Write the structure tokens for this entry.
Amino acid sequence: MILSFIITILNYASAQKEAAVKIEELSKANERLRIGREIHDSLGHTLTGLIMQLEMAYHVFDTDKDKSYGLLRDSIGSSREALRHTRQAVEKLRNDKYDIIEMIKRFQEQTAAVIVFNDHANTPFFKEQYKGLIFRLIQEALTNSIKHGRAKNISININQEKDHIKIMIEDDGSGAEKVIEGYGLKGMRERLDELNGYFDYGSKNKGFFIKALIPAGDIYE
């Protein structure tokens, strides 16, 4: 009887230890996934702007050397920013600030795209988790609009509707008849799934759109 009880306790302890190990492995996997998303979103966004600057510098080199040199100087700054983003991601971006206006401003300067941003939901008052989600969503959408669609005009609208926050991002780029969901779009979908949100995208008459709905129940600080 006692021996049986001891064996049961040992088996229970072993099962608990195994469960703890699995939970730790899962936590590490989730953290790696989160950091991977951060690197892809922030670094990919900055590098897209850098490539655009270098391409513009190359195209005007023979006709306007002063402008070309200016773009090259800006590219050095963008390269340093990319390095800073990488370091932040490695440090898990614990103190990352989600300033959407500043991010859009920098991206416009790098790419010469015209971006219209309308925030009718007071996102600066959102909880950090939601601000981060919207920041990364817009960042990835801008990157895709320039990198894949070669868009010149992009509109971003954030509105509060009945029980959700609606984010609509549209561009005038080349669009796509068939979209292969890569790491960026997949990351957006996963982020929204974690919050029981809705995610959709596709081509329209001209250009591409991304639509996201976030439940608004507990979104404000």
About this structure: The first strand starts at residue 114 and ends at 119. The radius of gyration is 22 Å. The first helix runs from residue 2 to 59. The chain has two domains: 20-96, 109-221.
